Amino acid sequence: MITEPGIIDVSPPRDAMDPSSSFVEDSLLDRAAAGDIMAFRTLYDQWKAPMYTLAFRFHGNREDAEDSLQEAFVHMYRSIGGFRRESRFSSWLYRIVMNACISSTRPRRTGERRIDFSDEAQQPAAEDPPRDVVLQHILEEEIARLPELQRAVFLLYAGEGQTHVDIADILRISVGTSKSCYHRARSALQEALAQRGIQSLEVRQ
Fold first, then answer.
1. Portion of the chain with pLDDT greater than 90, in percent
2. Strand-by-strand arrangement of the 7-9 sheet
3. Looking at residues 24-31, what average pLDDT do you find?
4. What is the C-alpha separation between 15 and 160, in angstroms, rounded?
5. Among 15, 6, 17, which Cα is nearest to 136's?
6. Same-domain check for residues 106 and 153
7. Full residue range of the structural domain in which residue 154 is found
8. Domain for residue 7, yes or no?
9. Are residues 139 and 175 in the same domain?
10. Do 24 and 43 meet the contact criterion of CB atoms below 8 Å apart?
11. Residue 22 sits in the same domain as residue 99
12. For 161-187, what is each residue's pLDDT tens digit?
C-alpha cells in the first residue's frame, strides 16, 4: 500500500488471516484426515486466497505463485492425515507453502494436474492510481531479490503479521535467526528502494 509519494507501507493485507479467523475445527480436520474430499475442499476454500497472496509476494509473479500453491495443496492433501496438531493448523500450512516456494525450482512432473487459481490472483487493485502500481511493483521486485530465508521471514512478519515465535515454528529456525533475517531483509530493502528514489519503507519494527 502507498501511504504518500515515495513511501511504501508493507502491512498485513486486508484478506490476511487473523488469529480470530484462523481457527480450524477439529471435526473438519478429522474428516479431511479420513479422506473426506469435501472437508479438504472446505479447507482449500478457506485458505487459498491468503496462501496465494503469500506465494505471489514471495515469487513476484503469478506463474510461480500458482505452481508453488499447487504443490503446497497437493502436499497438504497427501499429508494431512499425519498432522499431529502439536502446532496450529495455520502454522503447519504456512510451513508447507513456504517450503513449496523455496523449493519451487523443482520441475513439475509430466502429467501432474494443476489447480486453476485464475479467479484468485491478488494483483494490485484496479482503482489504484498508476503511480501506486509502479511503486508496488518496484517493492515486489526488490522483495523477490532477497535471499530465500530472508524473503520468507520478511513476508511472514511484515506481510502476514506473524510473530517471530510463530515464524520460528513455521520455518523450523530459532527466534533469533528469524529476528536477524528480518532486520537484514528490512535493511536491504530500505537500501535498494532508496537507490530507486523511494524515500521510506514503513514496516513493523
1. 45
2. 2-4, 7-9, 200-202
3. 85
4. 10
5. 6
6. no
7. 123-205
8. no
9. yes
10. yes
11. yes
12. 999 999 999 999 999 999 999 999 999
Are the beta carbons of 130 and 137 closer than 8 angstroms? no
Estimate to the nearest angstrom the gap between the alpha carbon of 9 and the chain centroid. Answer: 17
In sign, the C-alpha dihedral spanning 137, 153, 49, 11 is negative
> What span, in angstroms and rounded, lies between the C-alpha atoms of 137 and 61?
10
Question: CA distances (Å), 203 to each of 7, 163, 169, in order?
Answer: 11, 14, 22
Cell numbers at residue 57, please?
A: 509476494
Give me 187's grid cell. Answer: 535493511
> Secondary structure of the chain in the HEC alphabet?
CEEECCEEECCCCCCCCCCCCCCCCHHHHHHHHCCCHHHHHHHHHHHHHHHHHHHHHHHCCHHHHHHHHHHHHHHHHHHHHHCCCCCCHHHHHHHHHHHHHHCCCCCCCCCCCCCCCHHHCCCCCCCCCHHHHHHHHHHHHHHHCCCHHHHHHHHHHHHCCCCHHHHHHHHCCCHHHHHHHHHHHHHHHHHHHHHCCCCEEECCC
CATH number at residue 22: 1.10.1740.10
